[in-house]
Design goal:
With 435 residues, the chain is an alpha/beta fold. Among the domains are: 173 residues, 3-Layer(aba) Sandwich (Rossmann fold), CATH 3.40.50; 74 residues, no CATH class. It contains 14 helices and 19 strands. The strands form five sheets. The protein has a five-stranded parallel sheet with strand order 1-12-11-10-14. Strands 16-15-19-17-18 form a five-stranded mixed sheet. The protein has a four-stranded antiparallel sheet with strand order 3-9-8-5, with no helix packed on it. Strand 6 and strand 7 form a beta hairpin. The longest helix is centred in the C-terminal third of the chain and has 24 residues. It is globular, with a radius of gyration of 22 Å.
């Protein structure tokens, strides 16, 4: 028996674009002759290299480590150099350039599944960290280190985050047994009182006749239903304010990507060196899903997907709303890359920015009920207190306001720029004065 979640406010009805990927066989991408492995997979990660230029690595060998877990080489070969690079979203990190040499001995091993039921939660946590597993609460969110404390609620976020990003449905349709076992593993580690599996309407049928150790909750295809804070609110958690997140609510929320890694690490002793990503957009001949090695450059993936049907205006890692433009085609896939989109001029629908016409469309569609146009005008004139009152600190950066604005004002980008200029500390000082 499933529970249908009630949608709150705003948002955009989303076509998940499942038609082309529903029945496709998912191939493995070709092996990259050069893998580019960023040290940091998310901002603020505590990690350092333990191998350097000129050293040889085996497939799955630890090349970097830290309190947040390990990073493994996706291929065997030679570390040619460690260099600084800028990832999409202007995230700067060092990266190892690894040239493919040698054989994939780990992949060639004949393995038997591990029995994990007798292991302690502490031992299971150790396996996850050593295997390089990172947690993500939604495909739109940043990665986080493996949580160590117990959770009252476990929420499996199986919702599709944006059009074309169809990996969640693929995992549900083809890896149900693995997903179920991974849920049991997390239940043993975190001892939750309640476990929810959040699905879109297309995936609900997969669990109707074979319920598992969880409650299935179904959400409409309305963007941004998969966002951590929105999903928590839909589950009636964190309604006191829009800013509440899973950690404040004693809830552990993880994606199906995370579950796949948990299963692979605990049952098969495999480190995180590959992932499924979706590809789509009118620039490609068709949409699909492909399994790639982490560190694979974008150019390799484009070639494996059949190349471009027509020259795209915009190439994104991620989705239509929250994707980040590639700085260069050699930008690699990292652990939280959900997809690769090649968007043509008709899809991007770019136009020159024009003055705000005060139509209020951004307010109507805002899923957290703030006033983007008021925030924009406050920031434009340097009124940070006004921006605070209009709800900037509650913005979840979903990007709807920018996409629906008829004047093509980059509202979200403007908010992000200001938040990145230490506005959070300004808000804290302001709240201290108000309080």
């Amino acid at each position: 028996m499933s529970v249908v979640l009630k949608w709150g406010r705003g948002g955009l009805v989303m076509n998940p674009q499942l038609e082309e990927t529903r029945t496709l066989t998912v191939p493995n991408a070709s092996l990259p002759s050069i893998a580019i492995l960023p040290l940091l997979q998310y901002p603020g990660q505590d990690s350092h290299w333990i191998l350097g230029a000129g050293q040889r690595v085996e497939e799955g060998m630890v090349v970097a480590t830290g309190p947040d877990g390990n990073l493994h080489s996706p291929i065997p070969g030679l570390i040619e150099k460690i260099t600084e690079m800028t990832l999409p979203g202007n995230f700067v990190t060092s990266a190892a350039q690894i040239r493919l040499e040698g054989s994939f001995t780990r992949s060639a091993e004949v393995k038997t599944p591990n029995s994990w039921e007798s292991k302690s939660p502490k031992d299971l946590l150790k396996i996850l960290k050593e295997s390089g597993v990172l947690f993500s609460s939604s495909a739109m969110g940043e990665l986080k280190p493996v949580r160590e404390n117990n959770a009252k609620k476990l929420v499996i976020n199986g919702l599709q985050s944006e059009p074309y990003l169809t990996v969640p449905f693929h995992l549900m349709a083809n890896y149900q047994r693995e997903i179920r076992e991974a849920i049991l593993i997390l239940q043993k580690i975190y001892q939750p009182e309640t476990t929810f599996l959040a699905l879109g309407p297309e995936a609900e049928i997969l669990f109707k006749n074979d319920p598992g150790p969880f409650t299935v909750v179904v959400s409409e295809n309305i963007f941004p239903n998969s966002h951590e804070k929105i999903l928590l609110k839909s589950l009636n958690y964190g309604e006191k304010n829009h800013g509440s997140d899973a950690s404040e609510d004693h809830t552990l929320m993880v994606t199906l990507d995370t579950l796949y890694w948990v299963y692979d690490a605990v049952v098969w002793s495999n480190p995180v060196t590959e992932k499924f990503i979706a590809y789509g957009g009118h620039g490609f001949h068709h949409s699909g899903i492909i399994k790639v090695k982490i560190g694979t450059p974008g150019a390799n993936i484009i070639q494996d997907c059949g190349g471009f049907r027509e020259t795209p205006d915009l190439i994104l890692y991620g989705g239509l709303f929250l994707g980040k433009p590639l700085n260069a085609l050699w930008n690699p896939v990292v652990k939280n890359t959900p997809g690769l989109l090649a968007m043509t001029a008709g899809e991007v629908n770019q136009a020159p920015e024009s003055p705000c016409i005060r139509c209020g469309v951004c307010i109507t569609h805002c899923p957290v009920g703030i006033k983007p146009v008021e925030i924009y005008l406050d920031l434009k004139f340097g009124d940070f207190a006004g921006a605070h009152d209009s709800g900037l600190k509650d913005c979840i950066e979903c990007g709807i306001c920018s996409s629906v604005c008829p004047s093509r004002i980059p509202l979200m980008e403007n908010f992000q720029d200001n938040l990145n200029k230490n506005l959070k500390s300004k808000f804290q000082n302001l709240e201290n004065r108000i309080g």
